[in-house]
Amino acid sequence: MNIQKATRLYEHWLGDELELIRADIRHKHQMMASGEFPFFRATFYRWMQLWPEACSDLTDAPMVLAVGDLHVENFGTWRDQEGRLVWGVNDFDEAFPLPWTNDLVRLATSAHLAVRSAHLSIGRKEACDSILAGYEEALEAGGKPFVLAEQHGWLRNVLLNKLRDPVRFWKKLDSLTTWQSSIPREARVGLQHLLPEPGLKGRIVHRIAGLGSLGRQRFVALSNWGGGQIAREAKALAPSACCMALAQPQKTKIYYQEIIDNAVRVPDPFVGVHGKWIVRRLAPDCTRVELADLPEGHDESALLQAMGYETANIHLGTKGAQRAIASDLKKRPKGWLHRAVKRMARIVMADWSDWRAVAP
Protein backbone atom coordinates (compact mmCIF):
# COMPACT_ATOMS: atom_id res chain seq x y z
CA MET A 1 0.00 0.00 0.00
CA ASN A 2 1.47 3.37 -0.98
CA ILE A 3 1.14 6.62 0.95
CA GLN A 4 -1.68 7.93 -1.26
CA LYS A 5 -3.87 4.89 -0.65
CA ALA A 6 -2.99 4.83 3.04
CA THR A 7 -4.06 8.46 3.36
CA ARG A 8 -7.36 7.89 1.55
CA LEU A 9 -8.17 4.91 3.76
CA TYR A 10 -7.30 6.80 6.93
CA GLU A 11 -9.36 9.85 6.01
CA HIS A 12 -12.30 7.63 5.09
CA TRP A 13 -12.01 5.86 8.45
CA LEU A 14 -11.66 9.14 10.33
CA GLY A 15 -14.61 10.62 8.46
CA ASP A 16 -16.76 7.82 9.88
CA GLU A 17 -15.66 8.79 13.40
CA LEU A 18 -16.16 12.56 13.21
CA GLU A 19 -17.03 15.40 10.85
CA LEU A 20 -14.09 16.54 8.73
CA ILE A 21 -13.53 20.04 7.35
CA ARG A 22 -12.56 19.35 3.77
CA ALA A 23 -10.85 22.70 3.18
CA ASP A 24 -8.55 21.93 6.11
CA ILE A 25 -7.86 18.46 4.73
CA ARG A 26 -6.76 20.00 1.43
CA HIS A 27 -4.51 22.40 3.35
CA LYS A 28 -3.07 19.45 5.26
CA HIS A 29 -2.21 17.68 1.99
CA GLN A 30 -0.36 20.77 0.81
CA MET A 31 1.55 21.01 4.08
CA MET A 32 2.53 17.35 3.78
CA ALA A 33 4.25 18.16 0.48
CA SER A 34 6.06 21.20 1.88
CA GLY A 35 8.75 19.34 3.82
CA GLU A 36 9.74 16.05 5.38
CA PHE A 37 9.16 17.29 8.92
CA PRO A 38 5.57 18.55 8.33
CA PHE A 39 4.91 15.33 6.41
CA PHE A 40 6.08 13.28 9.39
CA ARG A 41 3.93 15.22 11.83
CA ALA A 42 0.84 14.79 9.65
CA THR A 43 1.07 11.04 9.03
CA PHE A 44 0.99 9.14 12.30
CA TYR A 45 -1.48 6.72 10.71
CA ARG A 46 1.22 5.75 8.21
CA TRP A 47 3.83 5.38 10.94
CA MET A 48 1.65 2.83 12.69
CA GLN A 49 1.31 0.83 9.49
CA LEU A 50 5.06 0.67 8.90
CA TRP A 51 6.74 0.77 12.31
CA PRO A 52 5.74 -2.73 13.53
CA GLU A 53 7.40 -4.40 10.53
CA ALA A 54 10.36 -2.06 10.11
CA CYS A 55 11.21 -2.28 13.82
CA SER A 56 9.94 -5.78 14.55
CA ASP A 57 12.83 -6.30 16.96
CA LEU A 58 11.32 -3.59 19.21
CA THR A 59 7.66 -4.60 19.22
CA ASP A 60 8.15 -7.18 21.97
CA ALA A 61 8.91 -4.43 24.49
CA PRO A 62 6.62 -3.99 27.53
CA MET A 63 3.35 -2.23 26.77
CA VAL A 64 2.51 1.19 28.18
CA LEU A 65 -0.21 3.74 27.61
CA ALA A 66 1.85 5.68 25.07
CA VAL A 67 1.56 9.12 23.48
CA GLY A 68 1.66 7.49 20.05
CA ASP A 69 2.10 10.60 17.92
CA LEU A 70 5.15 11.87 19.76
CA HIS A 71 7.53 14.32 18.12
CA VAL A 72 9.74 17.26 19.05
CA GLU A 73 6.93 19.79 18.51
CA ASN A 74 4.42 17.94 20.71
CA PHE A 75 5.58 19.77 23.83
CA GLY A 76 4.24 22.95 25.35
CA THR A 77 3.56 24.92 28.50
CA TRP A 78 0.58 25.53 30.78
CA ARG A 79 -0.25 27.00 34.18
CA ASP A 80 -1.12 24.65 37.03
CA GLN A 81 -3.64 25.38 39.81
CA GLU A 82 -0.92 27.27 41.69
CA GLY A 83 -0.27 29.50 38.70
CA ARG A 84 3.15 27.94 38.10
CA LEU A 85 4.45 27.45 34.58
CA VAL A 86 4.73 23.76 33.64
CA TRP A 87 6.25 22.15 30.54
CA GLY A 88 5.54 18.76 29.03
CA VAL A 89 3.81 16.76 26.32
CA ASN A 90 1.07 18.92 24.84
CA ASP A 91 -1.22 16.58 22.89
CA PHE A 92 -2.57 13.07 23.45
CA ASP A 93 -4.98 12.68 20.54
CA GLU A 94 -3.35 9.38 19.51
CA ALA A 95 -2.75 7.88 22.96
CA PHE A 96 -2.92 4.09 22.82
CA PRO A 97 -1.42 0.99 24.50
CA LEU A 98 1.86 0.40 22.62
CA PRO A 99 5.37 -0.93 23.28
CA TRP A 100 7.31 1.75 25.13
CA THR A 101 9.85 1.75 22.31
CA ASN A 102 7.37 3.29 19.87
CA ASP A 103 7.41 6.70 21.54
CA LEU A 104 11.21 6.75 21.82
CA VAL A 105 11.78 5.80 18.19
CA ARG A 106 9.17 8.27 16.93
CA LEU A 107 10.50 11.13 19.07
CA ALA A 108 14.09 10.47 17.95
CA THR A 109 13.03 10.09 14.30
CA SER A 110 11.34 13.49 14.48
CA ALA A 111 14.60 14.96 15.80
CA HIS A 112 16.46 13.28 12.91
CA LEU A 113 14.08 14.87 10.39
CA ALA A 114 14.25 18.23 12.17
CA VAL A 115 18.02 18.14 11.70
CA ARG A 116 17.53 17.42 8.00
CA SER A 117 15.16 20.39 7.78
CA ALA A 118 17.62 22.66 9.63
CA HIS A 119 15.25 23.12 12.58
CA LEU A 120 17.92 21.53 14.77
CA SER A 121 21.70 21.61 14.38
CA ILE A 122 22.62 18.78 16.75
CA GLY A 123 24.19 15.57 15.39
CA ARG A 124 21.67 12.81 14.76
CA LYS A 125 23.39 10.23 16.95
CA GLU A 126 23.80 12.82 19.71
CA ALA A 127 20.07 13.56 19.46
CA CYS A 128 19.26 9.87 20.01
CA ASP A 129 21.72 9.62 22.88
CA SER A 130 20.29 12.72 24.56
CA ILE A 131 16.68 11.49 24.33
CA LEU A 132 17.60 8.06 25.67
CA ALA A 133 19.72 9.54 28.48
CA GLY A 134 16.80 11.64 29.66
CA TYR A 135 14.44 8.68 29.47
CA GLU A 136 16.77 6.46 31.50
CA GLU A 137 17.31 9.21 34.08
CA ALA A 138 13.57 9.56 34.62
CA LEU A 139 13.09 5.80 34.89
CA GLU A 140 15.71 5.57 37.60
CA ALA A 141 14.27 8.54 39.50
CA GLY A 142 10.63 7.49 39.12
CA GLY A 143 9.91 10.61 37.10
CA LYS A 144 9.28 14.24 38.04
CA PRO A 145 7.20 16.97 36.39
CA PHE A 146 8.87 20.00 34.80
CA VAL A 147 7.65 22.87 36.97
CA LEU A 148 9.48 25.95 35.68
CA ALA A 149 9.76 27.80 38.96
CA GLU A 150 12.80 27.49 41.20
CA GLN A 151 14.11 24.63 39.03
CA HIS A 152 14.78 24.26 35.29
CA GLY A 153 15.70 27.91 34.87
CA TRP A 154 17.48 27.17 31.60
CA LEU A 155 14.31 25.65 30.14
CA ARG A 156 12.18 28.57 31.35
CA ASN A 157 14.57 31.00 29.65
CA VAL A 158 14.40 29.03 26.40
CA LEU A 159 10.60 28.93 26.35
CA LEU A 160 9.72 32.43 27.53
CA ASN A 161 11.01 34.36 24.55
CA LYS A 162 9.64 37.32 22.59
CA LEU A 163 7.32 35.11 20.53
CA ARG A 164 5.18 34.56 23.63
CA ASP A 165 4.23 38.23 23.51
CA PRO A 166 0.52 38.56 24.49
CA VAL A 167 -0.09 41.31 21.93
CA ARG A 168 1.10 39.04 19.12
CA PHE A 169 -0.85 36.06 20.49
CA TRP A 170 -4.20 37.84 20.79
CA LYS A 171 -3.79 39.65 17.49
CA LYS A 172 -3.50 36.28 15.75
CA LEU A 173 -6.66 34.93 17.42
CA ASP A 174 -8.57 38.16 16.83
CA SER A 175 -7.83 37.90 13.11
CA LEU A 176 -9.81 34.65 12.80
CA THR A 177 -13.20 34.84 11.11
CA THR A 178 -16.30 34.31 13.22
CA TRP A 179 -17.85 30.86 12.67
CA GLN A 180 -21.25 31.39 11.07
CA SER A 181 -22.64 27.85 11.30
CA SER A 182 -23.82 26.00 14.37
CA ILE A 183 -21.35 24.00 16.44
CA PRO A 184 -22.03 20.61 18.05
CA ARG A 185 -23.78 20.79 21.41
CA GLU A 186 -21.03 18.88 23.24
CA ALA A 187 -18.44 21.37 22.02
CA ARG A 188 -20.55 24.36 23.01
CA VAL A 189 -21.29 22.99 26.48
CA GLY A 190 -17.61 22.13 26.99
CA LEU A 191 -16.55 25.65 26.07
CA GLN A 192 -19.17 27.24 28.33
CA HIS A 193 -18.11 25.00 31.21
CA LEU A 194 -14.56 26.40 31.07
CA LEU A 195 -15.55 30.07 31.00
CA PRO A 196 -14.99 32.01 34.25
CA GLU A 197 -18.67 32.91 34.54
CA PRO A 198 -21.91 31.74 32.89
CA GLY A 199 -23.43 33.68 30.03
CA LEU A 200 -20.21 35.46 29.12
CA LYS A 201 -20.62 37.16 25.73
CA GLY A 202 -18.15 36.68 22.90
CA ARG A 203 -17.73 34.98 19.54
CA ILE A 204 -16.78 31.56 18.20
CA VAL A 205 -14.01 31.18 15.61
CA HIS A 206 -12.59 28.22 13.72
CA ARG A 207 -8.89 27.74 14.39
CA ILE A 208 -6.46 25.93 12.10
CA ALA A 209 -3.62 24.42 14.13
CA GLY A 210 -1.44 21.35 14.30
CA LEU A 211 -0.89 18.89 11.48
CA GLY A 212 -1.85 15.46 12.72
CA SER A 213 -5.29 16.72 13.76
CA LEU A 214 -5.71 19.14 10.88
CA GLY A 215 -9.12 18.56 9.31
CA ARG A 216 -10.96 18.04 12.58
CA GLN A 217 -13.41 20.58 13.91
CA ARG A 218 -11.64 23.01 16.23
CA PHE A 219 -13.60 25.89 17.76
CA VAL A 220 -12.36 28.73 19.96
CA ALA A 221 -14.56 30.90 22.15
CA LEU A 222 -13.13 34.43 22.41
CA SER A 223 -14.32 36.87 25.03
CA ASN A 224 -13.25 39.66 27.39
CA TRP A 225 -13.28 39.20 31.13
CA GLY A 226 -11.76 41.14 34.00
CA GLY A 227 -10.12 43.70 31.75
CA GLY A 228 -8.46 41.32 29.31
CA GLN A 229 -9.05 38.75 26.63
CA ILE A 230 -9.64 35.05 27.24
CA ALA A 231 -9.92 32.02 24.94
CA ARG A 232 -11.24 28.48 25.31
CA GLU A 233 -10.83 25.78 22.65
CA ALA A 234 -12.79 22.62 21.85
CA LYS A 235 -11.25 20.09 19.45
CA ALA A 236 -12.96 16.97 18.15
CA LEU A 237 -11.57 13.65 19.35
CA ALA A 238 -11.57 10.24 17.68
CA PRO A 239 -10.08 6.86 18.59
CA SER A 240 -6.37 6.63 17.86
CA ALA A 241 -5.26 5.89 14.30
CA CYS A 242 -3.71 2.78 15.85
CA CYS A 243 -7.18 1.21 15.72
CA MET A 244 -7.17 1.39 11.93
CA ALA A 245 -3.48 0.80 11.27
CA LEU A 246 -3.25 -2.22 13.58
CA ALA A 247 -6.55 -3.65 12.31
CA GLN A 248 -8.25 -3.31 15.71
CA PRO A 249 -11.55 -1.65 14.71
CA GLN A 250 -13.26 -3.00 17.81
CA LYS A 251 -11.08 -0.77 20.00
CA THR A 252 -12.79 2.60 19.98
CA LYS A 253 -11.81 3.89 23.41
CA ILE A 254 -10.33 7.38 23.57
CA TYR A 255 -7.43 7.36 26.05
CA TYR A 256 -6.84 11.11 26.35
CA GLN A 257 -8.20 11.58 29.86
CA GLU A 258 -6.71 8.35 31.17
CA ILE A 259 -3.19 9.16 30.05
CA ILE A 260 -3.14 12.67 31.54
CA ASP A 261 -4.72 11.44 34.77
CA ASN A 262 -2.09 8.74 35.38
CA ALA A 263 1.17 10.24 34.10
CA VAL A 264 3.76 11.75 36.42
CA ARG A 265 2.41 15.19 35.78
CA VAL A 266 1.18 18.45 37.27
CA PRO A 267 -2.12 18.78 35.40
CA ASP A 268 -3.50 21.76 33.59
CA PRO A 269 -6.76 22.47 35.48
CA PHE A 270 -8.26 23.84 32.26
CA VAL A 271 -7.81 20.67 30.17
CA GLY A 272 -10.32 17.83 30.09
CA VAL A 273 -12.39 15.56 27.89
CA HIS A 274 -16.03 16.50 27.39
CA GLY A 275 -17.76 13.75 25.45
CA LYS A 276 -15.78 13.43 22.23
CA TRP A 277 -14.13 16.81 22.59
CA ILE A 278 -10.97 17.95 24.32
CA VAL A 279 -11.48 21.40 25.84
CA ARG A 280 -8.72 23.67 27.08
CA ARG A 281 -7.71 27.23 27.85
CA LEU A 282 -5.58 29.05 25.29
CA ALA A 283 -3.19 31.77 26.42
CA PRO A 284 0.26 33.06 25.44
CA ASP A 285 1.93 30.71 27.93
CA CYS A 286 -0.53 27.83 27.44
CA THR A 287 0.35 26.63 23.95
CA ARG A 288 2.44 24.19 21.98
CA VAL A 289 6.06 25.22 21.38
CA GLU A 290 7.39 25.05 17.83
CA LEU A 291 11.09 24.72 17.11
CA ALA A 292 11.05 27.89 15.02
CA ASP A 293 9.90 29.82 18.11
CA LEU A 294 12.95 28.87 20.17
CA PRO A 295 15.83 31.34 20.52
CA GLU A 296 19.05 30.76 18.64
CA GLY A 297 21.88 29.17 20.54
CA HIS A 298 19.80 27.20 23.04
CA ASP A 299 21.17 23.89 24.31
CA GLU A 300 19.55 21.39 21.96
CA SER A 301 21.02 18.38 23.70
CA ALA A 302 19.57 19.49 27.04
CA LEU A 303 16.17 20.15 25.44
CA LEU A 304 16.06 16.70 23.82
CA GLN A 305 17.15 15.12 27.08
CA ALA A 306 14.24 16.87 28.80
CA MET A 307 11.91 15.50 26.11
CA GLY A 308 13.19 11.99 26.79
CA TYR A 309 12.65 12.52 30.52
CA GLU A 310 9.10 13.78 29.97
CA THR A 311 8.35 10.76 27.76
CA ALA A 312 9.23 8.52 30.69
CA ASN A 313 6.98 10.65 32.92
CA ILE A 314 4.10 9.63 30.66
CA HIS A 315 5.04 5.95 30.51
CA LEU A 316 5.42 5.73 34.27
CA GLY A 317 1.67 6.25 34.49
CA THR A 318 1.26 2.61 33.47
CA LYS A 319 1.27 0.29 36.48
CA GLY A 320 4.48 -1.73 36.73
CA ALA A 321 6.13 0.14 33.86
CA GLN A 322 9.21 1.31 35.75
CA ARG A 323 10.53 -2.16 36.53
CA ALA A 324 9.42 -3.74 33.26
CA ILE A 325 11.00 -1.06 31.07
CA ALA A 326 14.22 -0.95 33.08
CA SER A 327 14.58 -4.70 32.68
CA ASP A 328 13.86 -4.52 28.96
CA LEU A 329 16.32 -1.67 28.44
CA LYS A 330 19.18 -3.74 29.85
CA LYS A 331 18.60 -6.32 27.12
CA ARG A 332 18.76 -3.82 24.27
CA PRO A 333 22.09 -3.75 22.40
CA LYS A 334 24.10 -0.55 22.32
CA GLY A 335 22.96 1.81 19.58
CA TRP A 336 19.53 0.20 19.17
CA LEU A 337 17.68 3.52 19.09
CA HIS A 338 19.93 5.15 16.50
CA ARG A 339 19.69 2.14 14.20
CA ALA A 340 15.91 2.07 14.46
CA VAL A 341 15.72 5.80 13.76
CA LYS A 342 17.83 5.48 10.62
CA ARG A 343 15.50 2.77 9.31
CA MET A 344 12.35 4.76 10.03
CA ALA A 345 13.79 8.01 8.65
CA ARG A 346 14.58 6.30 5.34
CA ILE A 347 11.02 4.97 5.15
CA VAL A 348 9.49 8.36 5.94
CA MET A 349 11.66 10.08 3.34
CA ALA A 350 10.65 7.53 0.69
CA ASP A 351 6.97 8.10 1.51
CA TRP A 352 7.44 11.86 1.37
CA SER A 353 9.08 11.58 -2.04
CA ASP A 354 6.13 9.52 -3.28
CA TRP A 355 3.65 12.03 -1.85
CA ARG A 356 5.36 15.01 -3.47
CA ALA A 357 5.40 13.27 -6.84
CA VAL A 358 1.61 13.41 -7.06
CA ALA A 359 0.84 16.09 -4.47
CA PRO A 360 -2.31 18.18 -5.10
Question: Can I get a quick summary?
Answer:
The protein has 360 residues and is an alpha+beta fold. It has helices spanning 3-17, 22-34, 36-42, 44-54, 100-116, 124-141, 153-159, 166-174, 185-194, 242-245, 256-262, 300-315, 321-331, 336-357, and strands at residues 63-66, 75-79, 85-89, 96-99, 146-147, 202-206, 218-225, 228-236, 272-274, 277-282.
Report on the architecture of this protein.
- By secondary structure, the protein is an alpha+beta fold.
- The chain is 46% helix and 14% strand.
- The strands form 3 sheets. A 5-stranded antiparallel beta sheet has the order 6-7-8-10-9, with helices on both faces. Strands 2-3-5 form a 3-stranded antiparallel beta sheet.
Radius of gyration in whole Å, from Cα?
A: 20 Å
- Supply the helix-strand structural class: alpha+beta
The ordered string of helix (H) and strand (E) elements is HHHHEEEEHHEHHHEEEHHEEHHH
Q: Beta-strand level of the residues, as a percent range?
A: 5-15%
Shape call: globular
Outline the biggest β-sheet: 5 strands, antiparallel
Number of strands: 10
Level of helix content?
Answer: 40-55%
In round numbers, the mean pLDDT is 91
Uncertain stretches:
none
Give the end-to-end Cα distance, rounded to a whole number of Å: 19 Å
Could you give the order of strands across the largest sheet?
6-7-8-10-9
Number of helices: 14
